[in-house]
């Protein structure tokens, strides 16, 4: 990791670092807690950042559960580009950041997740990073109006517990439950803005079931 800074200087403030990846620097923001039980690594959606309400609520819930929460801003966004990078580049950058997190916070269980595109990246790489669980917010099952182009194979890749929090009216589809996969349907669409308390409740209830005792 390079370019470390601790805004504000207090122990509870986020620690922001640039992480070198094969496709340029990613931005890693770690929100720390005292006596952490694990680390949750979260990725953003294709066209948005960590101001997304569902990511904010999931972050707050994970911090309350005793996890460090690390936000990963992909290199294309750090470079100021709006169009997302190809999947292989997203995955390679994510793997580099996950390795840096493992080095900086050794010995802690690693959970991964994200919103929409970030959830896809987390699913595709969960086994490679040794994640103990995956959190998917608004997983895009298929492009709107194209159910034949489903991405359920990606959602099935993790061999660890998966929680999917999905809007009932999501134009990107609704994934079915499956062994090892819990699906919580909330009022609203792909933005998951309609039931923010529901997001917090789902994440809060799920985390203790997947964290090592």
UniProtKB/TrEMBL annotation:
Pfam families per UniProt: Abhydrolase_11
Gene3D superfamilies the UniProt entry points to: alpha/beta hydrolase
Location of the KANL3/Tex30 alpha/beta hydrolase-like domain: 38-175
Gene Ontology molecular function, alphabetical: hydrolase activity
Keyword Hydrolase: yes
UniProt KW keywords: Hydrolase
PANTHER family with a match to the protein in the record: TESTIS DEVELOPMENT PROTEIN PRTD (PTHR13136), TESTIS-EXPRESSED PROTEIN 30 (PTHR13136:SF11)
Protein name as it appears in the record: Alpha/beta family hydrolase
């Amino acid at each position: 990791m390079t370019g470390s800074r601790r805004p504000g200087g207090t122990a509870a403030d986020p620690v922001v670092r640039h992480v070198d990846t094969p496709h340029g620097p990613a931005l890693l923001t770690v929100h720390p807690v005292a006596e952490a039980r694990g680390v949750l690594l979260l990725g953003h959606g294709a066209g948005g950042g960590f101001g997304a309400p569902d990511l904010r609520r999931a972050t707050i819930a994970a911090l309350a559960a005793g996890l460090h929460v690390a936000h990963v801003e992909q290199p294309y966004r750090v470079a100021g580009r709006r169009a997302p990078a190809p999947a292989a580049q997203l995955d390679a950058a994510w793997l580099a950041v996950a390795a840096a997190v493992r080095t900086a916070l050794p010995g802690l269980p690693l959970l991964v997740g994200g919103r929409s595109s970030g959830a896809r990246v987390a699913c595709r790489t969960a086994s490679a990073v040794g994640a103990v669980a995956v959190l998917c917010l608004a997983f895009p099952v298929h492009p709107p109006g194209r159910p034949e182009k489903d991405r359920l194979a990606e959602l099935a890749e993790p061999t660890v517990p998966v929680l999917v929090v999905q809007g009932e009216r999501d134009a990107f589809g609704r994934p079915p439950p499956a062994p090892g996969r819990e699906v919580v349907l909330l009022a609203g669409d792909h933005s998951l803005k309609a039931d923010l308390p529901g997001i917090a409740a789902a994440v809060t209830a799920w985390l203790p079931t997947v964290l090592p005792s």
